[in-house]
Specification:
Blueprint (H helix, E strand, L loop, with lengths): L4 E6 L6 H8 L5 E5 L1 H9 L4 H7 L2 E3 L16 E9 L1 H9 L5 H11 L4 E5 L6 E5 L2 E5 L3 H11 L4 E3 L3 H15 L1
Helix pairs in contact: 4-6
Length: 178
Amino acid sequence: MKKPRLAWAITGSGHYIEECLAFLLTLEDVDLYLSQAGEEVLKMYGIGLDDIRAKMPVYRDKTASSPPVGHFYKGYYHTFVMAPATSNTVAKCVLGIADNLVTNLYSQAGKCRVPSIVYPCDIAPEMETTAPGGKVMVYPRKIDLHSTEQLRSFEYTHVVDSVDALVAAVTARLNGLA
């Protein structure tokens, strides 16, 4: 087996997606996973897959059983990153629902004791976020904030609150593996 890789998933959140993607594209040995909504959001932000595919493999959510999750059982991945992650995806992860590619990846990473780093889009009662037209204010619901807080308590899961914290957590993980 080759050196283990990093698995990164993008869901349907535009929350600092350009900054997350800019950091992702600086990394080596990464596979990118896109939920159906993640693929739609990239298009809304004018981000094409061709440049990304030139840098790394891209897996899209096109099957019912999510076959790529089997890579976790083979030691193919050392870390799973979900950034940005929608409130819907976070809620499903908290409830143990693994009904699409990304939630399956999170579930299988945990079952294989592979650490996950998650950057949820809902992290504060009042916050600035990015939309295709620029910055906007959003006011996450209590249920969304509650799910984010619950996810913080999950084993093998590190929840971050900003792009800077995401960069620091991924960098620390990679440095710890070196």
